[in-house]
């Protein structure tokens, strides 16, 4: 008789995969009668909290949505003509529904396994091509976090490539976006880089500079010829960085054609909503010769085992987790989902459509300026693209207030100037409202808006009109109808494995359920359409939501204060270390600059420490994977007078609750240092332990891991930091929003005051619907799932590190090194063979080479856990067939994995094993088979032959 599970009545019941009966069966395998006993053995008493979570009772999904509707209703959506790098845009419905709201896109992981990531890699290559074509530079990355941090990365790049012994300062034009200037300053100070801000309208100022940052068009809207200043900069040995508006570049001479070495900016206005500041895809493109200095990720084209073109992440030896303390950037997250949206916006509109949008935007700006001049208002700049700067001595605040009364937000530049920015969403009625705010009535926009709102480019300098083609690749011409676009998106989606298809058992990455109810509110206009610099009385709901979320996260972690500004885990790391640095400086101990980091740590830890101006000293780990306490004491003693901090991941990167964590914290504190606990593995702590209670001073939290913001194919992420009270004065702030953080902090970490605020409703909803009991149960479920998988796999693959009672935390490491030595089958072979079984591989060769790190999470049910374990056990049997000689060591299903349908259908099948063995190693695969689009990809070929924009269609022909 079939047994059915009992009804699941709460959100926590539906979030946590295994039913109570399933959990009982899993516990029986482990030899425990209940979860409490398992957790009691796994989690050290020394870190266990003695008080339950003081959070509101769990809301059901309907109640949570009602509450979010209340919060959204406290936001006021006005027409924003503020500009400052954020513009109104219309997201095509086919992209909104089939990318942003589609789990096939938003639940995918970073494409480190390229064979099952071909869809989103192609989408990212489209994005790179858009940026490269529009900027006029040959190489673009796969997206940065935002425009401000992209400019900061460009500054660091320019500093690296400077060949002078004393490179001098970094020069910034005063007409660069104000938030960008301050983000660059924040990043420059700990590196000892001097930043000089000056008005460069008349040319370079005196001094030695390794780089110059210009805005094109300027923050105040002006469009001027930057070629002369670029030439002056090159004559003086400086790199030229231009922050450029991609839409304007459809009409203006691209920076690469007038001498820019690096071009940065944001793709937000390519179909990505405001979201109160993010997430948005920043971009960074470089000239030939410095592409290997590119920070972040780069998608390139290589070939698979059959010689057919295939996409993958290029230059991976440059990845920061390998460079560690030699790293030049700590970026490990991109904004993939948003880059996909922006790239698809360009695919859908094509070059003609983008140009028409830009012409319409410019026409509205010209009409706006003409009406202002006609009404007696001085327009400061003769040449502009979309932003008009009006001079009204002493009246600016009055005009801005009058416009707000008419439903339009303008930019209060200063007491005498008002900025008005037009966008894709601007209509004639907006112009009428703006004119009325200036006291101009009775003016008809149609007087200047001819030809449907597009027309001449009279507002742009004649010698700066673009005459070079862009987006000539067929992909930007083939998908004009919604039907064609829909099918293109579906075709790319089908090439990938995301959480909507199977579990993604990645260690350290926590690929858990991103519930639909959590995702639903982010596209509501009251959250999506708020400009980050809108008056705060129009964002009351956002501020309340952010305040509640920060308070909840503080309660969960045991800290006094939380800042949600860092828009990636890497930025949270940097913010936390800058808080520590600021604390030491405030006490007259700026000489404390040594950061201790265990050898097992994720590479971004060391990279962040270097960026925070610290010297990295590595602490050894013992054979069990734990911090070597003797080595710790020795390093602390050696650096006692200069010790700034230790960075510890807890549970450890090896997936173990280290028993000595409280001793580690006490040892560092006794020497005057601070303790940074990396919150990447918080999914094993929530409800059971609080870092702020067991000895940590600061942590960053990955909201895209523990708190359910989806990974989006490699981003967006949010990495807020929690701090104890003494570090609160050193949280990040913002130049345009005093409410975002203290003046005593290091400055802004991200361009927007509250970072990627547009996706904060997701973790808010998760915490609200789980409630205190559900959050603890999720942690217990993660521990149970990891130990169940470890126990099932242990007879087949050694589990490398365990803690008390032979238990792991929330993840486990399967060790293949002995098998590799005996059979030649590597961890990579197993990873690729898992594709034939329909699975994304676990984390490959991190933190230990030759291993697979597995994290099942609490949201995978027992059926899926067993399906994965069955696949791993079946693969182990295949390895045994290699060991016994039944399979050839070089020609077997593992070495040749993954197997494409095209390969299986060839007339020239020469393998000793059968096609069915290759395609259907388990009978269940005949019911639902994932077919990889390419065979194993040659990584080295792609690095030797770097191609990082859309290849011609002919390259895919046989």
TrEMBL record:
Coiled-coil ranges from the UniProt annotation: none
Catalysed reaction, written as an equation: N(6)-[(R)-lipoyl]-L-lysyl-[glycine-cleavage complex H protein] + glycine + H(+) = N(6)-[(R)-S(8)-aminomethyldihydrolipoyl]-L-lysyl-[glycine-cleavage complex H protein] + CO2
Catalytic class of the enzyme: oxidoreductase
Functional description taken from the UniProt entry: The glycine cleavage system catalyzes the degradation of glycine. The P protein binds the alpha-amino group of glycine through its pyridoxal phosphate cofactor; CO(2) is released and the remaining methylamine moiety is then transferred to the lipoamide cofactor of the H protein.
Family in the record: Belongs to the GcvP family.
Domain Glycine cleavage system P-protein N-terminal per the UniProt entry, residue ranges: 13-438, 476-733
Organism ancestry: Bacteria, Bacillati, Actinomycetota, Actinomycetes, Streptosporangiales
UniProt-listed InterPro entries: GcvP, GDC-P_C, GDC-P_N, GDC_P, PyrdxlP-dep_Trfase, PyrdxlP-dep_Trfase_major, PyrdxlP-dep_Trfase_small
GO molecular function list: glycine binding; glycine dehydrogenase (decarboxylating) activity; pyridoxal phosphate binding
Protein name as catalogued: Glycine dehydrogenase (decarboxylating)
Domain Glycine dehydrogenase C-terminal: 778-899
Organism per entry: Actinomadura craniellae
């Amino acid at each position: 008789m079939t047994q059915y599970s009992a009804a699941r009545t709460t959100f926590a019941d539906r979030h946590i995969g295994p039913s109570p009966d399933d959990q009982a069966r899993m516990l029986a395998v482990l030899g425990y009668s209940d979860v409490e006993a398992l957790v009691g053995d796994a989690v050290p008493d020394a870190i266990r909290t003695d008080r339950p979570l003081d959070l509101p009772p769990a809301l059901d999904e309907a109640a949570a949505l009602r509450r979010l509707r209340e919060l959204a209703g406290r936001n006021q959506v006005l027409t924003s003509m503020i500009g400052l790098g954020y513009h109104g845009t219309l997201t095509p419905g086919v992209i909104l529904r089939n990318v942003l709201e589609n789990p096939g896109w938003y639940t995918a992981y970073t494409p480190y396994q390229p064979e099952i990531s071909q869809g989103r890699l192609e989408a990212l290559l489209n994005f790179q091509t858009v940026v490269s074509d529009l900027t006029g530079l040959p190489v673009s990355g796969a997206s940065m976090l935002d425009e401000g941090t992209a400019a900061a990365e460009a500054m660091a790049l320019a500093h690296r490539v400077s060949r002078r012994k004393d490179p001098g300062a970094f020069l910034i034009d005063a007409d660069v976006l104000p938030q960008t200037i301050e983000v660059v300053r924040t990043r420059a100070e700990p590196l000892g880089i001097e930043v000089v801000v000056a008005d460069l309208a008349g040319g370079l100022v005196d001094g030695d500079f390794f780089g110059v940052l210009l805005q094109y068009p300027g923050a105040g809207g002006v469009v001027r010829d930057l070629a002369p200043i670029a030439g002056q900069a090159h004559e003086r040995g400086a790199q030229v960085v231009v922050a450029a508006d991609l839409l304007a570049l459809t009409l203006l001479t691209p920076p690469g054609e007038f001498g820019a070495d690096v071009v940065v900016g944001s793709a937000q206005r390519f179909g990505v909503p405001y979201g109160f500041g993010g997430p948005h895809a920043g971009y960074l493109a470089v000239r030939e010769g410095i592409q290997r200095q590119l920070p972040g990720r780069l998608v390139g084209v290589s070939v698979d085992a059959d010689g057919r073109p295939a996409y993958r992440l290029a230059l991976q030896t440059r990845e920061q987790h390998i460079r560690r303390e030699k790293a030049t950037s700590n970026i490990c997250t991109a904004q993939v989902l948003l880059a996909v949206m922006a790239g698809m916006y360009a695919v859908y509109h094509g070059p003609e459509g983008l140009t028409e949008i830009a012409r319409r935007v410019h026409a509205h700006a010209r009409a706006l300026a003409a009406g202002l001049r006609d009404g007696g208002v001085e327009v400061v700049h003769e040449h502009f693209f979309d932003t008009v700067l009006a001079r009204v001595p002493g009246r600016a605040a009055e005009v801005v207030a009058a416009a707000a009364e008419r439903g339009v937000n303008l930019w209060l530049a200063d007491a005498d100037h008002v900025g008005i920015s037009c966008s894709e969403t601007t209509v004639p009625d907006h112009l009428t409202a703006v004119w009325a705010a200036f006291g101009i009535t009775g003016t008809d926009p149609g007087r200047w808006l001819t030809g449907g709102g597009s027309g001449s480019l009279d507002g742009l300098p004649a010698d700066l009109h673009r005459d070079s083609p862009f987006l000539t690749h067929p992909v930007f011409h083939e998908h004009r109808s919604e039907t064609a676009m829909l099918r293109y998106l579906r075709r790319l989606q089908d090439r990938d494995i995301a959480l909507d298809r199977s579990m993604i058992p990645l260690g350290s990455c926590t690929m858990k359920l991103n519930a639909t109810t959590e995702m639903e509110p982010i596209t509501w206009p009251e959250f999506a359409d708020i400009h980050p610099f809108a008056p705060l009385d129009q964002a009351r709901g956002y501020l309340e939501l952010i305040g509640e979320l920060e308070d909840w996260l503080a309660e969960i972690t045991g800290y006094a204060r939380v800042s949600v500004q860092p828009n990636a885990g890497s930025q949270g790391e940097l913010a936390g270390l800058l808080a520590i640095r600021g604390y030491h400086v405030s006490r007259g101990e700026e000489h404390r600059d040594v950061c201790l980091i265990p050898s097992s740590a994720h590479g971004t830890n060391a990279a962040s420490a270097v960026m925070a101006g610290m010297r990295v000293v590595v602490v050894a780990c013992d054979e069990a994977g734990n911090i070597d306490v003797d080595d710790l004491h020795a390093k602390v003693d050696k650096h006692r007078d200069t010790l700034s901090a230790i960075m510890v991941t807890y549970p450890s990167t090896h997936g173990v609750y280290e028993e000595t964590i409280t001793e580690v914290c006490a040892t560092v504190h006794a020497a005057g240092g601070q303790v940074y606990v990396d919150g990447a593995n918080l999914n094993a702590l929530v409800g059971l332990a609080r870092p702020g209670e067991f000895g940590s001073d600061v942590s960053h939290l990955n909201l895209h891991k523990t708190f359910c913001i989806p990974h989006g194919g490699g981003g967006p992420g949010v990495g807020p930091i929690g701090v104890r009270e003494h570090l609160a004065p050193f949280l990040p702030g913002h130049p345009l929003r005093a409410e975002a953080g203290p003046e005593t902090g290091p400055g802004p970490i991200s361009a927007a005051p509250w970072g990627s605020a547009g996706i904060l409703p997701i973790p808010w909803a998760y915490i609200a619907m789980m409630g205190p009991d559900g959050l603890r149960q999720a942690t217990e479920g993660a521990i149970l799932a990891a130990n169940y998988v470890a126990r099932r796999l242990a007879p087949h693959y050694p589990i490398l590190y365990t803690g008390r009672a032979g238990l792991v935390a929330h993840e486990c490491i399967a060790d293949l090194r002995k098998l590799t030595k005996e059979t030649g089958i590597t961890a990579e072979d197993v990873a690729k063979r898992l594709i034939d079984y329909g699975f994304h591989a676990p984390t490959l060769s991190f933190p230990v080479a030759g291993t697979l790190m597995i994290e099942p999470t609490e949201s995978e049910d027992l059926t899926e856990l067993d399906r994965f374990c069955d696949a791993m056990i079946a693969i182990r049997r295949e390895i045994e067939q290699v060991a016994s000689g039944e399979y050839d060591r070089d020609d077997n299903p593992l070495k040749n994995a993954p197997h494409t349908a095209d390969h299986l259908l060839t007339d020239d099948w020469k393998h000793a094993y059968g096609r069915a063995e290759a395609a259907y190693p388990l009978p269940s695969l005949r019911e639902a088979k994932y077919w990889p689009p390419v065979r194993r990809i040659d990584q080295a070929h792609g690095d030797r032959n770097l191609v990082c924009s859309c290849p011609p269609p002919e390259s895919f022909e046989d």
